[in-house]
Fold each of these.
Amino acid sequence: MPDRAKISKAVIPAAGLGTRMLPATKVLPKEMLPVAGKPLIHYAIEELVASGIDSIILVVRNQKSLVQSHFERDLALESSLESRNLAAAAEELRRLSDIVNLQFVEQHQPLGLANAVCCARPLLGGESFFVLLPDVIMVNADPVARQMIQVHASRGGSVVAIREIEAKDVDRHGIVEVEHTTATASGAAVRITGLVEKPSLGAAPSRLGVFGRYVLEPAIWEAIEQTAPDARGEIQLTDALNLLCSKNCLFGLHFQGDHYDAGDPFGYFRANVDLSLCDPHLRQPCLEYLSRLQTSDALTLGK
Ligand code: G1P
């Protein structure tokens, strides 16, 4: 029987090395990089809270992580803001610690996404749960996590977010093989029959990439236990899902919404431009600046 209990817990892996964003991520965890004034981790938490999640487990590199400090109260900073008549800013910081129930666990070594998820297992009980990779920002009025939780509620099984990608991006994603189907419209859920982590274009079973969002049933634990490490010694969630889908239902949801791979320099730039344009205070100056850039060769960068 599928486990269709409400999904109330989520795991955010935040212990990666952020190699694509070095040197910015040498000291600063990738999840703390700001996009339009807010760290990536905020977008992740807001999407989960808007999707009905009430308990989030952050997997961090160590308990002294800046991600953890970011969500702790800082009484000295709050009172110093208040004494400077910045009560609204102080209140905003205070609210950070109340957004949702947050717990932190450590991943001691970078042994892959499936290993990171396993670090949270003692806090998940036997429930189905959500996994969200915070470097993928999703923007949609109906949050992508909620769309996926609805697929799980109506059809059972585990669910991953999928979207057609360009040939050049195939080797940067988990790629799925789906049951013969014509259901490719956004909003459609299709049965997955196999997955490959970051294949070469020639070896890819399709152009449908996995996008950092997963609803996982407890059967994933046994699949992870049976998954061999890859050539780099990492245990990939994609490989565990490939085992899972031979015995259990796994759906791919052609999600609705815009996505940004903010863990990559160009995706990060795009996210900053688009989300700044959504800010009513920044929209007009940004548009004016971008159109000046397009129509003049004024960008000399000091030359
Ligand atoms: C991870 C997953 C990969 C997925 C990608 C984008 O890779 O392993 O299957 O397609 O996220 O969500 P990463 O980008 O962390 O290397």
Amino acid sequence: MRVITSVRIMQHLALRWRRQGVHVAFVPTMGYLHAGHLSLIRRARRLARSKGKVVVSIFVNPTQFGPTEDFARYPRDFSRDRKLCREAGADIVFAPDTKAIYPRDFSTYVVEEDLSWRMEGESRPTHFRGVGTVVAKLLNIVLPDVAVFGAKDFQQAMVVGRIKRDLNFPVKIVIAPTIRERDGLAMSSRNRYLEGPLREQALALSRAITKARGAIRQRTAIQADALRSELRTFIEQQSAMRVDYIEFFDPVTLQPVHSVDRRTHMALAVFVGSTRLIDNAALDGGRP
Ligand code: PAF
């Protein structure tokens, strides 16, 4: 496995692979890898097959963090990440620095204007502009045939799919399932911030999904507002928890629904102390 930090060298290699007909599978990450990322890399390995190449990018993208968010303290451990990438079957780790991706006079952004507004977009107004821009850049640098994103960031995956379609990126977007700890907590690099009792309290996110599923199993449809307020009360029973949003929506259009049924998708963002966690799931599934 090789580590590349230069945009020019990465793109040069990608162009050579393209000319040679080498199939490339790509996993963009911000590093501090956990089992969720590793499942994406293994999926990319299978998609690339034995003769193809797997590229993993590690770049903590400043433009997707708001001014009061955790960019500076976002966990980083490059040597551990590099080892994990090798073990999971990556061929290249692409790890540019900020200047390589955003030169001083950088002034071009990608803004998706439909799926981005609600949920994460409402709470983090510049977030998807940063994600859309860096993903577009990474796709242009790595030139993959297929890129793998996690369902844990469901809205992100949908926004990326729309950008790919609208801007005609010749890449297939694959969405891989959320990986959870044994007790149901969705894997996230930010879980490392959860100290002491916060780790236990954070289980309220996946439990809220289980509760919503249970409610739907008992009735054909439920008013979204009633279910939202029941789940908010359930989550905020825990002293350190504050709900940012709980949304019920159509999984294709991301439009909120008034009446929740088995076809509905649910997403939530909750502050656990000062750590903001997100989770989501289709309400027709089993254990989230
Ligand atoms: O999901 C992430 O880790 C990031 O948002 C991504 C897609 C790597 C873009 O920085």
